[in-house]
Amino acid sequence: MTVAELIVRLNQAPPNAKVVVRGYENGYNDVLELRSLFVRPNPEAKWYDGEYEKSKATDGIEAIEIYGENKISE
Fold first, then answer.
1. Which residues make Cβ contacts (< 8 Å) with residue 40, sequence separation at least 6?
2. Are 65 and 34 in contact (CB under 8 A)?
3. Spatial CB neighbours of 56, under 8 Å, sequence gap ≥ 6
4. pTM of the prediction?
5. HEC profile for 9-50?
């Protein structure tokens, strides 16, 4: 999904709807920030890995990470 595609989808959502991300194992968390990074496909990814891995160089694919975490965890 690109930023443009996400904007279209968000424009169709109720303006006061909460935006959340999946929790580590269960539930959902608030979005805390958007992070800019570069990624590259990970052809050796297992089923439990993400499809992409962080690229150390700017020759990767420009991406935005929607980041959230459980702020009440121990």
1. 52, 53, 55, 60, 61
2. yes
3. none
4. 0.78
5. HHHCCCCCCCCEEECCCCCEEEEEEEEEEEEEECCCCCCCCC
Does 10 map to a domain? no
- Give the model confidence (pLDDT) of 16-45 as tens digits: 999 999 988 899 999 999 999 999 999 999
| Cα(30)–Cα(51) distance, integer angstroms | 23
Please state the domain count of the chain: 1
Give the Cα separation of 58 and 36 in Å (integer).
Answer: 11
Domain that holds residue 51: 16-68
Q: Rounded to an integer, what distance in angstroms lies between the CA atom of residue 7 and that of residue 11?
A: 6
The DSSP letter of residue 61 is E
